[in-house]
Give the backbone structure.
Amino acid sequence: MVSLMCTLRQHTDEVSCCAFSPSLLATSSGDKTLRVYNTADFSELPFSPLSGHGYGVHCCCFSSCGSHLFSCSTDGSVIVWSSETGEVSAALHHPGRSPLRVCAVAPDSSHLLAGACDGTVALWDFSSKTLRRCSAASEASVVACCFSPCGQMFVTGCTYGDLKLWDVMDMNLLHAEKDTHDLGVACCSFAQQFKIDGCCVEFRLASCGQDSRLKIWIVSQSEGAACTMKLLHTLSSQSAPVLSCAFSPDGERVVSGSVDKSVAIYDANLGTLLHTVKHHDRYVTAVALSPTMPWIATGSMDRTVNVWRMVDEVHSSGAQSQQTVCQGRKLPGHSRLLLTDWSEEDVQTWLCEEGLQELVSVFKGNNMDGPELNKLNKETAAELGIESLGLRGRLLRKIEALKAEQSGSEAPDEFLCPITRELMRDPVIASDGYSYERESIESWVRGRNKTSPMTNLPLQTSLLTPNRSLKMAISRWKSSQ
Protein backbone atom coordinates (compact mmCIF):
# COMPACT_ATOMS: atom_id res chain seq x y z
CA MET A 1 0.00 0.00 0.00
CA VAL A 2 1.23 3.51 -0.86
CA SER A 3 -0.31 6.63 0.70
CA LEU A 4 0.44 10.31 0.12
CA MET A 5 1.89 12.01 3.22
CA CYS A 6 2.43 15.58 2.03
CA THR A 7 3.04 17.79 -1.00
CA LEU A 8 5.79 20.41 -1.04
CA ARG A 9 5.16 23.40 -3.31
CA GLN A 10 8.03 25.82 -2.66
CA HIS A 11 9.89 25.56 -6.00
CA THR A 12 9.02 28.04 -8.75
CA ASP A 13 10.22 25.85 -11.64
CA GLU A 14 10.30 22.16 -12.48
CA VAL A 15 11.82 19.82 -9.86
CA SER A 16 14.86 18.02 -11.23
CA CYS A 17 16.00 15.80 -8.34
CA CYS A 18 15.19 14.60 -4.82
CA ALA A 19 17.57 13.12 -2.25
CA PHE A 20 17.20 11.82 1.30
CA SER A 21 19.69 11.74 4.15
CA PRO A 22 18.80 9.98 7.44
CA SER A 23 17.10 13.17 8.66
CA LEU A 24 16.70 15.52 5.69
CA LEU A 25 15.09 15.74 2.26
CA ALA A 26 16.72 17.91 -0.40
CA THR A 27 15.17 18.93 -3.72
CA SER A 28 16.67 20.78 -6.69
CA SER A 29 15.02 22.72 -9.46
CA GLY A 30 15.32 24.69 -12.66
CA ASP A 31 14.71 27.76 -10.49
CA LYS A 32 18.48 27.60 -9.60
CA THR A 33 17.85 26.63 -5.98
CA LEU A 34 17.87 23.68 -3.63
CA ARG A 35 15.38 23.37 -0.80
CA VAL A 36 16.03 21.36 2.35
CA TYR A 37 13.37 19.91 4.66
CA ASN A 38 13.44 18.26 8.06
CA THR A 39 11.92 14.78 7.68
CA ALA A 40 10.53 14.93 11.22
CA ASP A 41 7.68 17.11 9.94
CA PHE A 42 8.81 18.14 6.42
CA SER A 43 9.18 21.74 7.46
CA GLU A 44 11.67 23.75 5.44
CA LEU A 45 14.91 24.52 7.26
CA PRO A 46 15.66 28.17 8.15
CA PHE A 47 18.63 28.40 5.75
CA SER A 48 16.62 27.04 2.80
CA PRO A 49 16.49 27.76 -0.11
CA LEU A 50 20.14 27.38 -1.06
CA SER A 51 21.19 29.75 -3.83
CA GLY A 52 24.62 29.57 -5.41
CA HIS A 53 24.23 28.24 -8.93
CA GLY A 54 23.95 30.58 -11.89
CA TYR A 55 21.65 28.27 -13.85
CA GLY A 56 19.19 25.48 -13.17
CA VAL A 57 20.23 22.72 -10.78
CA HIS A 58 20.04 19.26 -12.39
CA CYS A 59 20.98 16.90 -9.57
CA CYS A 60 21.58 16.72 -5.82
CA CYS A 61 22.77 14.01 -3.42
CA PHE A 62 23.90 13.60 0.19
CA SER A 63 27.05 12.03 1.59
CA SER A 64 26.27 8.73 3.32
CA CYS A 65 26.54 10.28 6.79
CA GLY A 66 24.34 13.18 5.68
CA SER A 67 26.77 15.93 6.68
CA HIS A 68 27.27 17.21 3.13
CA LEU A 69 24.87 18.00 0.30
CA PHE A 70 26.10 18.12 -3.30
CA SER A 71 24.50 19.79 -6.32
CA CYS A 72 25.45 20.26 -9.96
CA SER A 73 24.20 22.68 -12.58
CA THR A 74 24.28 23.93 -16.14
CA ASP A 75 26.83 26.45 -14.85
CA GLY A 76 29.45 23.66 -14.91
CA SER A 77 29.99 23.49 -11.16
CA VAL A 78 29.41 21.12 -8.27
CA ILE A 79 28.70 22.93 -5.01
CA VAL A 80 29.32 21.23 -1.68
CA TRP A 81 26.97 22.50 1.05
CA SER A 82 27.00 21.94 4.79
CA SER A 83 23.81 20.11 5.74
CA GLU A 84 23.98 21.68 9.20
CA THR A 85 24.25 25.34 8.20
CA GLY A 86 23.55 25.55 4.47
CA GLU A 87 26.91 27.24 3.94
CA VAL A 88 29.03 26.51 0.86
CA SER A 89 31.95 24.25 1.81
CA ALA A 90 33.46 24.13 -1.68
CA ALA A 91 32.73 24.86 -5.33
CA LEU A 92 34.25 22.43 -7.82
CA HIS A 93 34.35 23.35 -11.50
CA HIS A 94 34.44 21.13 -14.56
CA PRO A 95 37.77 21.91 -16.27
CA GLY A 96 36.01 22.66 -19.56
CA ARG A 97 33.11 24.43 -17.80
CA SER A 98 30.75 22.07 -19.60
CA PRO A 99 27.21 21.94 -18.19
CA LEU A 100 26.88 19.16 -15.60
CA ARG A 101 23.82 16.94 -15.77
CA VAL A 102 24.38 14.52 -12.92
CA CYS A 103 26.57 14.03 -9.84
CA ALA A 104 27.21 11.20 -7.38
CA VAL A 105 29.28 10.67 -4.24
CA ALA A 106 31.04 7.43 -3.28
CA PRO A 107 29.54 5.45 -0.38
CA ASP A 108 32.55 6.31 1.80
CA SER A 109 32.56 9.94 0.57
CA SER A 110 36.11 9.56 -0.77
CA HIS A 111 35.23 10.60 -4.32
CA LEU A 112 32.79 12.87 -6.11
CA LEU A 113 31.71 12.26 -9.70
CA ALA A 114 29.93 14.45 -12.25
CA GLY A 115 28.76 13.77 -15.80
CA ALA A 116 28.91 16.54 -18.39
CA CYS A 117 27.19 17.51 -21.63
CA ASP A 118 30.48 17.22 -23.57
CA GLY A 119 30.59 13.47 -22.87
CA THR A 120 33.19 13.63 -20.10
CA VAL A 121 33.10 12.57 -16.46
CA ALA A 122 35.03 14.48 -13.81
CA LEU A 123 36.26 12.68 -10.70
CA TRP A 124 37.35 14.64 -7.63
CA ASP A 125 39.11 13.50 -4.48
CA PHE A 126 36.60 14.77 -1.94
CA SER A 127 38.85 15.18 1.09
CA SER A 128 41.30 17.44 -0.77
CA LYS A 129 38.68 18.85 -3.19
CA THR A 130 41.14 18.27 -6.06
CA LEU A 131 40.32 17.00 -9.53
CA ARG A 132 41.76 13.53 -10.05
CA ARG A 133 40.78 13.13 -13.67
CA CYS A 134 38.39 14.33 -16.33
CA SER A 135 38.02 11.77 -19.11
CA ALA A 136 35.86 11.19 -22.15
CA ALA A 137 33.15 8.65 -21.37
CA SER A 138 30.94 9.04 -24.44
CA GLU A 139 30.41 10.95 -27.65
CA ALA A 140 27.06 12.03 -26.21
CA SER A 141 26.02 13.79 -23.00
CA VAL A 142 26.57 11.86 -19.78
CA VAL A 143 23.21 12.10 -18.03
CA ALA A 144 23.44 9.26 -15.49
CA CYS A 145 26.11 8.04 -13.09
CA CYS A 146 26.37 6.21 -9.79
CA PHE A 147 28.96 4.43 -7.65
CA SER A 148 28.84 0.74 -6.83
CA PRO A 149 28.13 0.06 -3.13
CA CYS A 150 31.74 -1.06 -2.63
CA GLY A 151 32.96 2.26 -4.04
CA GLN A 152 35.50 0.57 -6.31
CA MET A 153 33.73 1.30 -9.59
CA PHE A 154 31.08 3.52 -11.11
CA VAL A 155 28.67 3.39 -14.04
CA THR A 156 27.81 6.08 -16.57
CA GLY A 157 24.85 6.35 -18.93
CA CYS A 158 24.57 8.62 -21.97
CA THR A 159 21.98 9.97 -24.38
CA TYR A 160 23.13 7.44 -27.01
CA GLY A 161 21.79 4.67 -24.78
CA ASP A 162 25.05 3.07 -23.60
CA LEU A 163 25.97 2.00 -20.07
CA LYS A 164 29.65 1.81 -19.15
CA LEU A 165 31.40 0.49 -16.04
CA TRP A 166 34.63 2.14 -14.89
CA ASP A 167 37.31 1.42 -12.32
CA VAL A 168 37.55 4.27 -9.79
CA MET A 169 41.29 4.03 -9.17
CA ASP A 170 42.47 4.46 -12.78
CA MET A 171 39.20 5.27 -14.56
CA ASN A 172 39.77 2.31 -16.84
CA LEU A 173 36.77 1.04 -18.79
CA LEU A 174 35.70 -2.31 -17.32
CA HIS A 175 32.68 -3.03 -19.50
CA ALA A 176 30.52 -1.32 -22.12
CA GLU A 177 26.90 -2.34 -22.73
CA LYS A 178 25.73 -0.82 -26.00
CA ASP A 179 22.17 0.34 -26.77
CA THR A 180 20.75 -0.55 -23.37
CA HIS A 181 17.95 1.97 -23.88
CA ASP A 182 16.80 3.07 -27.30
CA LEU A 183 17.02 6.88 -27.66
CA GLY A 184 19.05 7.21 -24.48
CA VAL A 185 19.61 6.38 -20.82
CA ALA A 186 17.91 8.72 -18.33
CA CYS A 187 19.02 7.40 -14.92
CA CYS A 188 20.86 4.53 -13.24
CA SER A 189 21.12 3.34 -9.65
CA PHE A 190 22.93 0.53 -7.81
CA ALA A 191 21.26 -1.43 -5.01
CA GLN A 192 23.19 -0.99 -1.76
CA GLN A 193 23.56 -4.72 -1.19
CA PHE A 194 25.99 -6.99 -3.01
CA LYS A 195 26.91 -10.66 -2.88
CA ILE A 196 30.37 -12.15 -2.52
CA ASP A 197 30.89 -15.72 -3.71
CA GLY A 198 34.52 -16.70 -3.41
CA CYS A 199 36.42 -14.20 -5.54
CA CYS A 200 33.29 -13.03 -7.41
CA VAL A 201 31.30 -9.94 -6.41
CA GLU A 202 27.75 -9.49 -7.71
CA PHE A 203 25.78 -6.22 -7.78
CA ARG A 204 22.28 -5.18 -8.87
CA LEU A 205 21.95 -2.16 -11.15
CA ALA A 206 18.76 -0.45 -12.32
CA SER A 207 18.63 1.72 -15.44
CA CYS A 208 15.83 3.50 -17.25
CA GLY A 209 15.45 5.54 -20.39
CA GLN A 210 13.63 7.02 -23.32
CA ASP A 211 12.42 3.57 -24.46
CA SER A 212 9.84 3.55 -21.61
CA ARG A 213 11.67 0.68 -19.95
CA LEU A 214 13.17 0.06 -16.54
CA LYS A 215 15.86 -2.64 -16.57
CA ILE A 216 17.53 -4.50 -13.74
CA TRP A 217 21.01 -5.89 -14.38
CA ILE A 218 23.35 -8.27 -12.59
CA VAL A 219 26.84 -6.82 -12.63
CA SER A 220 29.56 -9.36 -11.81
CA GLN A 221 33.25 -8.87 -11.24
CA SER A 222 35.75 -11.63 -10.53
CA GLU A 223 39.39 -11.21 -9.59
CA GLY A 224 41.50 -11.49 -12.71
CA ALA A 225 38.44 -11.69 -14.98
CA ALA A 226 36.44 -9.19 -17.02
CA CYS A 227 33.44 -7.39 -15.57
CA THR A 228 30.11 -8.58 -16.99
CA MET A 229 26.52 -7.34 -17.15
CA LYS A 230 23.54 -9.67 -17.48
CA LEU A 231 19.97 -8.47 -17.95
CA LEU A 232 17.72 -9.80 -15.18
CA HIS A 233 14.40 -8.00 -15.77
CA THR A 234 12.87 -5.63 -18.30
CA LEU A 235 9.96 -3.80 -16.70
CA SER A 236 7.48 -2.05 -18.97
CA SER A 237 4.42 -1.02 -16.97
CA GLN A 238 4.91 2.68 -17.78
CA SER A 239 3.75 3.95 -21.16
CA ALA A 240 6.23 6.78 -21.75
CA PRO A 241 9.95 7.49 -21.19
CA VAL A 242 11.12 6.56 -17.68
CA LEU A 243 13.18 9.45 -16.29
CA SER A 244 14.27 8.28 -12.85
CA CYS A 245 14.79 5.13 -10.80
CA ALA A 246 16.04 4.13 -7.35
CA PHE A 247 16.29 1.04 -5.13
CA SER A 248 14.92 0.81 -1.62
CA PRO A 249 17.62 0.64 1.10
CA ASP A 250 17.18 -3.12 1.47
CA GLY A 251 17.26 -3.71 -2.30
CA GLU A 252 13.85 -5.40 -2.29
CA ARG A 253 11.99 -2.69 -4.21
CA VAL A 254 12.80 -0.48 -7.16
CA VAL A 255 10.84 2.69 -7.94
CA SER A 256 10.62 4.65 -11.19
CA GLY A 257 9.06 7.90 -12.40
CA SER A 258 7.81 8.49 -15.92
CA VAL A 259 6.69 11.00 -18.51
CA ASP A 260 3.24 9.37 -18.24
CA LYS A 261 3.01 11.13 -14.81
CA SER A 262 3.10 7.84 -12.90
CA VAL A 263 5.32 6.35 -10.21
CA ALA A 264 5.79 2.57 -10.42
CA ILE A 265 6.94 0.36 -7.56
CA TYR A 266 8.31 -3.10 -8.40
CA ASP A 267 9.53 -6.17 -6.56
CA ALA A 268 13.20 -6.01 -7.57
CA ASN A 269 13.76 -9.75 -7.20
CA LEU A 270 10.70 -10.99 -9.06
CA GLY A 271 10.36 -8.12 -11.50
CA THR A 272 6.65 -7.78 -10.72
CA LEU A 273 4.66 -4.54 -10.48
CA LEU A 274 3.39 -3.90 -6.95
CA HIS A 275 1.88 -0.42 -7.12
CA THR A 276 1.29 2.44 -9.54
CA VAL A 277 0.46 5.89 -8.20
CA LYS A 278 -0.51 9.04 -10.06
CA HIS A 279 -0.72 12.38 -8.34
CA HIS A 280 1.48 14.67 -10.42
CA ASP A 281 0.10 16.83 -13.22
CA ARG A 282 3.21 16.58 -15.40
CA TYR A 283 6.29 14.38 -15.95
CA VAL A 284 7.76 12.67 -12.88
CA THR A 285 11.42 13.64 -13.15
CA ALA A 286 12.81 12.39 -9.83
CA VAL A 287 12.36 9.60 -7.28
CA ALA A 288 14.23 9.01 -4.02
CA LEU A 289 13.81 6.61 -1.09
CA SER A 290 14.59 7.37 2.53
CA PRO A 291 17.40 5.31 4.11
CA THR A 292 15.62 5.24 7.47
CA MET A 293 11.88 5.25 6.80
CA PRO A 294 9.50 3.63 4.24
CA TRP A 295 9.16 6.91 2.34
CA ILE A 296 9.39 7.82 -1.33
CA ALA A 297 9.88 11.37 -2.57
CA THR A 298 8.83 12.16 -6.15
CA GLY A 299 9.55 15.38 -8.01
CA SER A 300 7.83 16.63 -11.12
CA MET A 301 7.75 19.26 -13.84
CA ASP A 302 4.58 20.46 -12.11
CA ARG A 303 6.96 22.09 -9.56
CA THR A 304 5.83 19.93 -6.65
CA VAL A 305 7.40 17.21 -4.55
CA ASN A 306 5.18 14.47 -3.16
CA VAL A 307 6.23 12.37 -0.18
CA TRP A 308 4.66 8.91 -0.01
CA ARG A 309 4.55 6.24 2.66
CA MET A 310 5.20 2.74 1.36
CA VAL A 311 3.77 0.19 3.77
CA ASP A 312 4.46 -3.52 3.62
CA GLU A 313 5.92 -6.10 5.97
CA VAL A 314 9.46 -5.94 4.64
CA HIS A 315 9.77 -2.19 4.70
CA SER A 316 7.93 -1.64 7.95
CA SER A 317 10.22 -3.96 9.90
CA GLY A 318 13.34 -2.67 8.18
CA ALA A 319 12.37 0.94 8.66
CA GLN A 320 11.61 0.40 12.31
CA SER A 321 15.02 -1.08 13.03
CA GLN A 322 16.72 1.67 11.02
CA GLN A 323 14.68 4.35 12.78
CA THR A 324 16.06 3.10 16.08
CA VAL A 325 19.59 3.74 14.87
CA CYS A 326 18.70 7.17 13.56
CA GLN A 327 16.85 8.35 16.63
CA GLY A 328 19.39 6.92 19.06
CA ARG A 329 22.19 8.77 17.26
CA LYS A 330 24.67 6.60 19.16
CA LEU A 331 26.87 3.60 18.41
CA PRO A 332 28.19 1.39 21.22
CA GLY A 333 30.40 3.54 23.46
CA HIS A 334 30.76 6.44 21.08
CA SER A 335 28.64 9.29 19.80
CA ARG A 336 28.26 9.42 16.01
CA LEU A 337 28.30 13.23 16.24
CA LEU A 338 30.99 15.67 17.23
CA LEU A 339 30.45 17.26 20.64
CA THR A 340 29.79 20.63 19.00
CA ASP A 341 26.94 19.03 17.02
CA TRP A 342 25.15 17.55 20.04
CA SER A 343 21.61 18.62 20.82
CA GLU A 344 20.28 19.23 24.33
CA GLU A 345 18.90 15.68 24.30
CA ASP A 346 22.34 14.28 23.38
CA VAL A 347 23.90 16.08 26.33
CA GLN A 348 21.25 14.78 28.73
CA THR A 349 21.70 11.23 27.43
CA TRP A 350 25.47 11.50 27.91
CA LEU A 351 25.01 12.71 31.50
CA CYS A 352 22.91 9.65 32.30
CA GLU A 353 25.44 7.31 30.67
CA GLU A 354 28.24 8.86 32.75
CA GLY A 355 26.37 8.50 36.04
CA LEU A 356 25.61 12.21 36.35
CA GLN A 357 21.82 11.93 36.38
CA GLU A 358 21.52 14.54 39.12
CA LEU A 359 22.73 17.19 36.66
CA VAL A 360 20.13 16.47 33.97
CA SER A 361 17.55 18.89 35.39
CA VAL A 362 20.21 21.63 35.77
CA PHE A 363 21.39 21.24 32.18
CA LYS A 364 17.85 20.97 30.86
CA GLY A 365 16.80 24.11 32.71
CA ASN A 366 19.72 26.03 31.21
CA ASN A 367 19.22 24.63 27.68
CA MET A 368 22.76 23.22 27.58
CA ASP A 369 23.61 21.69 24.21
CA GLY A 370 26.90 20.39 22.76
CA PRO A 371 28.55 23.78 22.05
CA GLU A 372 27.72 24.94 25.59
CA LEU A 373 29.07 21.71 27.08
CA ASN A 374 32.23 22.11 25.01
CA LYS A 375 32.87 25.57 26.57
CA LEU A 376 32.05 24.57 30.15
CA ASN A 377 34.74 25.35 32.77
CA LYS A 378 34.97 25.74 36.54
CA GLU A 379 33.50 29.24 36.51
CA THR A 380 30.50 28.45 34.31
CA ALA A 381 29.88 25.22 36.22
CA ALA A 382 29.64 27.28 39.40
CA GLU A 383 27.29 29.73 37.67
CA LEU A 384 25.01 26.80 36.86
CA GLY A 385 24.63 26.25 40.60
CA ILE A 386 26.70 23.05 40.85
CA GLU A 387 27.91 23.70 44.39
CA SER A 388 29.45 20.31 45.17
CA LEU A 389 33.17 20.52 44.39
CA GLY A 390 33.36 16.76 43.95
CA LEU A 391 30.47 16.67 41.49
CA ARG A 392 31.81 19.69 39.63
CA GLY A 393 35.27 18.15 39.36
CA ARG A 394 33.87 14.82 38.18
CA LEU A 395 31.83 16.60 35.49
CA LEU A 396 34.84 18.56 34.20
CA ARG A 397 37.05 15.44 34.12
CA LYS A 398 34.45 13.57 32.09
CA ILE A 399 34.14 16.48 29.66
CA GLU A 400 37.91 16.51 29.17
CA ALA A 401 37.89 12.75 28.60
CA LEU A 402 35.10 13.16 26.07
CA LYS A 403 37.05 15.83 24.19
CA ALA A 404 40.13 13.61 24.17
CA GLU A 405 38.08 10.71 22.85
CA GLN A 406 36.85 12.85 19.95
CA SER A 407 40.21 14.48 19.22
CA GLY A 408 40.70 12.20 16.23
CA SER A 409 37.58 13.70 14.69
CA GLU A 410 39.59 16.55 13.16
CA ALA A 411 40.07 14.17 10.27
CA PRO A 412 37.38 14.13 7.57
CA ASP A 413 34.36 12.20 8.81
CA GLU A 414 34.65 9.61 6.03
CA PHE A 415 38.14 8.67 7.34
CA LEU A 416 36.76 7.65 10.74
CA CYS A 417 35.48 4.17 11.48
CA PRO A 418 31.72 4.42 12.16
CA ILE A 419 32.09 2.03 15.10
CA THR A 420 35.06 3.53 16.99
CA ARG A 421 35.05 7.03 15.47
CA GLU A 422 38.84 6.68 15.14
CA LEU A 423 41.01 7.20 12.07
CA MET A 424 41.06 4.00 10.04
CA ARG A 425 44.35 2.18 9.35
CA ASP A 426 43.02 -0.81 7.41
CA PRO A 427 39.60 0.19 5.99
CA VAL A 428 37.43 -2.58 4.59
CA ILE A 429 34.00 -2.61 2.97
CA ALA A 430 31.33 -4.76 4.58
CA SER A 431 28.31 -6.18 2.77
CA ASP A 432 26.22 -3.15 3.82
CA GLY A 433 28.41 -0.98 1.57
CA TYR A 434 29.99 0.99 4.42
CA SER A 435 33.70 1.11 5.26
CA TYR A 436 35.01 0.16 8.71
CA GLU A 437 38.32 -0.45 10.43
CA ARG A 438 38.97 -4.17 9.85
CA GLU A 439 39.60 -5.00 13.50
CA SER A 440 36.46 -3.16 14.62
CA ILE A 441 34.02 -4.76 12.18
CA GLU A 442 35.57 -8.21 12.74
CA SER A 443 35.10 -7.75 16.50
CA TRP A 444 31.53 -6.52 15.85
CA VAL A 445 30.69 -9.68 13.90
CA ARG A 446 32.46 -11.98 16.38
CA GLY A 447 30.29 -10.48 19.09
CA ARG A 448 27.28 -12.08 17.36
CA ASN A 449 26.18 -8.78 15.89
CA LYS A 450 24.86 -10.03 12.55
CA THR A 451 23.39 -6.68 11.60
CA SER A 452 24.99 -3.63 10.04
CA PRO A 453 26.29 -1.06 12.57
CA MET A 454 25.04 1.68 10.24
CA THR A 455 21.63 0.45 9.03
CA ASN A 456 20.76 -2.24 11.62
CA LEU A 457 19.74 -4.51 8.72
CA PRO A 458 21.15 -8.08 8.52
CA LEU A 459 24.63 -8.40 7.01
CA GLN A 460 24.33 -10.71 4.02
CA THR A 461 27.88 -12.01 4.50
CA SER A 462 30.77 -11.53 6.90
CA LEU A 463 33.27 -11.25 4.05
CA LEU A 464 35.18 -7.96 3.89
CA THR A 465 36.71 -6.21 0.89
CA PRO A 466 39.82 -4.00 1.33
CA ASN A 467 39.04 -0.37 0.45
CA ARG A 468 42.25 0.55 -1.36
CA SER A 469 41.13 3.98 -2.53
CA LEU A 470 40.08 5.05 0.98
CA LYS A 471 43.31 3.76 2.49
CA MET A 472 45.31 5.80 -0.03
CA ALA A 473 43.19 8.90 0.67
CA ILE A 474 43.79 8.55 4.42
CA SER A 475 47.50 8.11 3.80
CA ARG A 476 47.62 11.27 1.70
CA TRP A 477 45.70 13.19 4.36
CA LYS A 478 48.05 12.02 7.12
CA SER A 479 51.07 13.05 5.06
CA SER A 480 49.65 16.53 4.67
CA GLN A 481 49.19 17.05 8.40
User: Anything to note?
Assistant: The chain is about 15% helix and 40% strand.
